[in-house]
Amino acid sequence: MVEDLAREHQRELAEAGTLVDLEELTCEIGDEVARQLCQHELFGRAERALKEEFADCPDCGERSMACVPEPTLLEGLRGELAYNQPRYYCPRCRRAFFPDGRFTGTSDQEHRYAERDAEDGLGGKQPW
Ligand SMILES: [Zn+2]
């Protein structure tokens, strides 16, 4: 993997004049690798959850709800993480909601929803 990265970033690495420049560049590359690896795993978990996860409506307990993928952006430690979050729609309550995120590991509320924060300012808790 390191050899591949060195080949891919050959020119920038050669242009880094000082050790500080080199470390700053390699930290940026490492952050991007970490972001992509995290996004890859999160995306896979969400895709599996879309197939397997069931949720009851928190208001009426309805079980036969449609599950639709909701394109989601999270602000991760190393940049934005894009994935398709399972979202349910209860026809009885005419309400959409997100399950607790235990399958994707996103239930800890430590990550902000980049897009939904920008749109509604309510931290992604607003059903629509
Ligand atoms: Zn309901």
Commentary on this structure:
This protein is elongated. It is 42% helix and 20% strand. A three-stranded antiparallel sheet has the order 1-2-3. The longest helix has 34 residues. The site of zinc ion has 7 residues, from loops.
Spans of 5+ residues with little confidence (pLDDT < 50)? 117-128
**What structural class do the secondary elements suggest?**
alpha+beta
Kindly state the percentage of residues in helix.
Answer: 40-55%
Q: Ions, cofactors, ligands: which are bound?
A: zinc ion
Q: In DSSP terms, counting alpha (H) and pi (I) runs of 4 or more, how many helices? A: 4
Distance between the termini: 43 Å
The main sheet comes to: 3 strands, antiparallel
How much beta, percentage-wise? Answer: 15-25%
Order of helices and strands: HHHEEEH
Q: What would you report as the Rg, rounded to the nearest angstrom?
A: 19 Å
For the largest sheet, list the strands in their spatial order. 1-2-3
Total E-strand runs? 3
Outline type = elongated
Mean pLDDT: 82
In short:
The protein is an alpha+beta fold and 128 residues long. It contains 4 helices and 3 strands. The protein is elongated.
Topology:
Layout: H1 2-8, H2 10-15, H3 19-52, E1 66-76, E2 79-90, E3 95-97, H4 114-120
Antiparallel strand pairs: 1-2, 2-3
The structure holds zinc ion.
